[in-house]
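It is worth pausing here to work through a concrete case rather than discussing structure prediction in the abstract. The textbook approach is simple: state the sequence, then state the predicted structure, then interpret. We follow exactly that order.
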Amino acid sequence: MTGASSQPISAQPLKPATAGLKSMTGYAQARAVENGWSLRVTIRSVNHRFLDLHLRTPDGFEPLEPRIRQLIRERIRRGHLDVTVYYDLSGPSAVGVNHDVAAAYLQEANALRKQFGLQSEPDVASIMRLPGVVGSAAPSLESGLERLEMVVSRCMIESLDKLDRMRADEANHLRQEMSARLKSIAAMTSSVATLAERARPAFAKRLEARLQELLGGTQLDPARLAQEAAMAAERSDVSEELARLHSHVQQFESLLVTSSDVGKKLDFLLQEMQREANTLLSKTPGNEAEGLEITRFALEIKSEIEKVREQVQNIE
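Step two, the predicted structure:
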């Protein structure tokens, strides 16, 4: 981005954050060149539970920092941000001489020369090399604060726009990966439902055989047997867990395509999905083929949920 002091830069209205899923990982920069100086803004962003903003500006930019922070907070909700503003002078104004410091050095040199009767005059070149005498000139904010603030704001908005685009692209890749894993979870949930239905008769038979074994062949009251079987079946019924798991998957998929700023909501849904998967494991009946297959699916579901959780940690 270029400009010249003879061509005024009109203040641009702040663009609202674009809707949609955003990653918290990104990098962007923007530049402006004026007569006698240039400005560069860089933004690096990684994941964080909250907005953790680290702002570095040159000496003399303190009056502009509130505006910079405001622009960032209106666009970014979460993430660790390292924002750096670079200011470089060019031409004659690039070098600044601190005359007060140089005069103090010269005064002390003359005092020492008189005290010890030295004939040599102080060397100006040597004085210029002393600490604090020569350095990059600080920006003159007294006469150009409004102009500098306009350029800083423009650079900041441009870099935030670029960061938004990068974060959206990154989120699109994350969305695709998470959607594939959600489809896998949904498919395995359906398989578990089928296996659980198939396992019920086998479970009832196993219960009856176990009771016969414990009672030593004593004849069982059919009504009592049916009652005990119903109570045991209720304790091992996983239909509610499967229904909730299916519902959480649907909610998750909906948030992925319709909302922004949803990282915390997605993380909460994953916690609930993991809870249902754990309950599913604890209720898995027996060591028969169906029970072992349900256990295998439940473990796979837990594994997929954890993999999705790793991706969600990068979502704003």
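Step three, interpretation. The longest helix spans residues 141-215. Residues 1-18 have pLDDT under 50 and may be disordered.
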